[in-house]
Each structure stands twice: as C-alpha cells, then as structure tokens.
Amino acid sequence: MLHEAPRVMSEGDPIFHQRSFGRQQFGLRRVPPLLTPPPPENPIALWLARFEESIQPQLEWLTYWADRCWESIEPQLEHLKYRAGHFWESIQPQLERLKYQADRSWQSIEPQLARWAMRPPRDEHKEPIHPALRSLAHEARAIFVRLLAYAAGIAVLAVMAAELLRTEPVVAAVQPMPRSEWIAVGRPYPAFALTLPDLGEEAHYAIRRHAEGGGRKDSITFGEPGRSLRYVMVEIYRPGTELERFADAASEITARAGSLRPAGPARAGLPLDTKFGSASTVEFAVGRFGIGHCIGFVRAFEAPRVQIAGLSCSMNSIVNRNAIVCALDRLTLLSAGSDPDIGKLFANAELKRTFCRQRETLMSATPKREYTVTQAPLRLRGHM
Asked: What are the distances in angstroms from CA 347 to CA 104, 332, 335, 341, 343?
C-alpha cells in the first residue's frame, strides 16, 4: 500500500480555514503571517519633490514681480489705448475725405475710359490691336486705385508719425514772476530835493513809472525800513490815466507801510500845518513788540493832480511832529520839466515857507530895535 506525501496547506485552502476555526474554538491563538517590507521609494520622485520645495519661494517672488510689472504698465497701456482711439478719431475724417475724393475722381474719368475702351477700330486693314491695349481701361483703373491707396497709406503714416513724435507742452519748472505795474527808472534824474542833516543818513532817490497809465512817483528815502533807527520817506505822486481819484489817508499810508510790518491798527492823528497846507496824518506802531512809532502824512491836490505822502519812523522814541513839518518845509523843486503846474504849486508853497519855524514869533530871535535920532535946536547957556 502506497503512502501519500504530506499535504502543505496555504491560507487559500478551505481546509486551512476550517482547522484554524477549530483551533480558535479550542482557545488556540493564530499566528499572523510575516509582513513584507515596503518597496523602496523612487529617487527621481524624491528629487522632484525637493526641487519643487526649493523653487517655491522663487515662484512666489516671480508671481509678485509679474503683478507689480502689470500694475506699473497698466496705466501706460490705458494711455496708449486712449492715444490710439484719439488718433483714429483724428484721421477718420481725413480717410473719409480721401475716399470721397477717390470716388469723385473715378466717376469723372470712368465714362472717358469706357468710351475709349469701346471705341471701334478705325480701319480694318490696319494691323490688329494688341490684347494688352484692349484692357487699358482696366489697367488704368487698377493703377489709379493703387496710387490712391499708396497716397492714403503715406498720409496715414505721416499722421501717425506726427502724432507719436508730438511732444507734450513744455511747462516751466519755475513760474515766472508777475510783471509789476510800476517800472523803476534805471538812472533817475532828480526833480525834487530834500536834505535832513539831523538824521545822518544818505538820501536815496528813485523814480517809478506806471506801465500803462504813465503816472510817475518820485520817492526820497533816508535809512532802511526795519533796520535803521530812523526812517523817512517822502513820495511825490503825479498820476496818469491809471488813477481816477486819490484814496483816503489811511488807505494811502497803509499801502506804503507794507515793508515796515505794522504791529497794530493805524489810527488817525492830528493834521500837520505845512507850507503845502494841512496834511492828514495816521499813526501806527512798528517793531517786534510794537516799541517803534511811525507817522504817515498825506497831502493831495486836485489842480494839479499831485499827492505828497510819506512816512517818518523811529524805532526807539516817539516821532517829533515838528520834524515832519521841517522836512516838508525843506522839500524843494529842482526841475518841473513839461509840467508848469507843479512849478506854480511849489512857487506858491515857497511863499508860505517858515524855514523850519524860524520865522515864528516864539521861535525866532528878538529883532533889533530901531532908534530914530532927531536933531533938536541947540540952546546956549547965556545971552550974548
């Protein structure tokens, strides 16, 4: 009797499961099969993953840079789009005009070309016409259309070049200063004279003329406003057509006291009795703490139209009103030029001159008393 070889059972064999089930019923533990090791990872995949991780920051930076570039060129693209639309709108009427002229020209020559093409030959015995000459009308039409197309293309290119090469209007980096209405004369010839020996300052003479009206302002100044302890300015204004009438005293003085920077409001003062008549005055304080004192004076005439105005300032004391009267008393005319009325005005003022109040009774010296000597007849002591 032959013996069978032992049978090897696997997990897929149903008898194996039956026996395993039986073992579980009798409290036996099943031993799990051995786990197979995982397959090795692909080195190429690992390299690609590491490469992707290394270039990820660069990709993000490139994305950010691309967004910034697009934001920077987007306004330029919008501007180019606007310029292209504006350029098309500018050349569209010209193209329509060229098309209209081409149609008119073709309508004018088309009948002649048609008659020329349909004209029969004169003599049959002549040599036959070349076929190229029979299609002359069609060739001429094609050539004419091409010439118009070339001319239109050249015109479009010229307009595009002019539009693209056109420069923006030049804007000055520094705005020019507005032109003053009054123009200073370069080398003034003095028409008036004034001497103030008590100030110890040199007189500065200036002449300004109005650019349109022709008025003239002669000014004599002693010292510098805001720098000298004493400052005196006398102005003789002969207006032209730029002024209809003189303003009030406060307005005239305020217009001339801008460089002094008044520290407070101006107030009207007592009038001054000068050789030119009664002059209106305005007083105001100057300086950082208002310690300076200024008196402005104005005397206007209607016939002739002349205004004598000025300022007298002191930075450390009260301005002496008699000093202003004395300054106006010393104002004299050197040359009237072509204005005889101003000469008459100063001539009449000289008659009222007080020579700095030296002719007044209280200020002048006591005059000498004149004695009259009368010869009386001599009497003898005795009779002869």
From this structure: 87, 9, 12, 10, 6
